[in-house]
Each structure stands twice: as structure tokens, then as C-alpha cells.
User: Fold this.
Amino acid sequence: MKKKTPDLLQYAIWIDQKKAIIACMDKAGQITTESMESAIETHVRFPGETSSKSRLFSSTLNNEKHQQNKQHQQRKAFLKEVASHLSKVGVVVIMGPAETKYELHKELEKKKSMANARLELKSADKMKLHEIKAVLKERMKPSA
Assistant:
């Protein structure tokens, strides 16, 4: 007797540091989209900040290290949140202009539920919603 395989979904994700757009296509070809804003603070000013140089140079470095660590933690949380929105994954196409797409790829590889999923990376500048949907529709044509 054959094991019944679940209907796997195809995803296209456009991601950068500010937001992620997730498009999901089911077996019937229906596409749903979801947009997520990140809480990553890209550049924060400190009270009294005037210059990166000061008499107490080490305190400036500590502030910078603290800010970099905070950004890293925020980016990690954002990637985990994006990954948590994926279920029954067959294929994921990850697109974006920066390093964030590679970090998401690494995060998805860690998940046990993604063990049999195919992950693809594509470099892409800003994309509109219809362009992201077109990536999924294009993928459906060869298998049809």
C-alpha cells in the first residue's frame, strides 16, 4: 500500500532587512500572500551622540558592539518568525537583494520539517507583489 503524501506547497519569499513577502501556492494553483515587517533597528542614535570619537573611546566601541549585537538578535528573531509561517513545504524560492536571503536559507536548513524541501536562492532587487506571484506561476508551468 502506498503512503499518502501530503499536498506540498510551493513558496516564494522576497526578503530584506525591513520586510518579507511570502507567497504560497497550493496544488490547485491558488496563491496567497502575506507581508511581514521586521523590527530591526538599522541605525539608532544614542542620547548625546555627536561623534564616533570621544575621550572615552572604549565606551563608544561598547555602544557600537551593543548595537550590533542587538541588530543580530533582532534579525535572528525576524528570520525565525518568517520560517514559522511555512508549513507543508515542497519548494521554497528565496529572493532578495542582500545577505538576509542567505541567512534565511541557513535558518530553513536547520528546521527538521524542511528536510525534504527544495530550497532555491535568487538575487533580486525590489520586487512587486505581482512579480513574486509570477515566480510561482512560472514554476508551475513545467510540471503541468
In short: Confidence is low (pLDDT under 50) at residues 1-5. Helices lie at 57-84, 100-110, 129-143.
